[in-house]
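Thread: quick sanity check before group meeting

JM: Hey all, I'm pulling together slides for Thursday and realized we never actually wrote out the predicted structure for the chain we discussed last week. Dropping the sequence here so it's in one place. If anyone has concerns about the input, flag it before I start.
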Amino acid sequence: MAVNELWVNEDLQTLIGNENPFTYFLKQDGEVFRALENRRTFAVELANKRYFIKYHRGVGSGEIMKNLVRGRLPVISARNEYRAIRRLRDLGISVPVIAAFGVRGFLPWTRESFIVTEDVGTQENLEDYTRDWTRKRPAFHDKQSLLTEVVSISRLMHDHQVCHRDYYLCHFMMAAQGGNRLTVLDLHRALVKRKLAQRWVIKDVAALYFSAMDIGLTQRDLFRFMRQYTGKSLGRTLSEDSLFWQAVDARARRLKGRHG
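JM (edit): ok, ran it. Output follows.
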């Protein structure tokens, strides 16, 4: 099967040697985080360093049609994540470091691909970090600092035509200390477009709002998010962007109704 694209960093290339990288990464075994029919995500230790491997296999025409009928874009390779990580990194957003990437096969049902990223280290995701906020009120500065960073990442990402498509608090990892505080993970469904349709932006912002509904945010916090996200005064965004915010609220509440 012809290789369409392949890149492996120097450290991993030394380990792989003359072996085919597709064969090498496919045969690795470690802690499995997700195992689907066409995608497996697992962590491995290679030369005393921890990596995450996502290995994608071909997607059948039936699965593709099922996704399209449901209004979803099917994920058919690791290229989505590869492109999104590179774009966000170029924007200065903290993302995992890519250690290897490969795609081979042209037809969706015969395509194989992988992406290998360096482990981001021992961190806590934002969903877990905020879980007790309703019981134990966080320090004002801490809450506002996190809110500002989430807004900044969201606006920068959407302004540069990237949609995460799984934009929940659990996909923000908090660094223990120093550097960028939040790292964005799980970009395998992400879209990188020349012009991002507003429905994708609504999807992201609604998912984020849904995942933050029960952490004790006040009306003032939500208004602050709206102001910072649009770069407008509260009055202007409520007036000029009312349809957008209504759509975000409606979608978030539908998610809440389905998932509780």
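AS: nice. The first strand starts at residue 3 and ends at 8. The first helix runs from residue 10 to 16.
JM: adding both to the slides.
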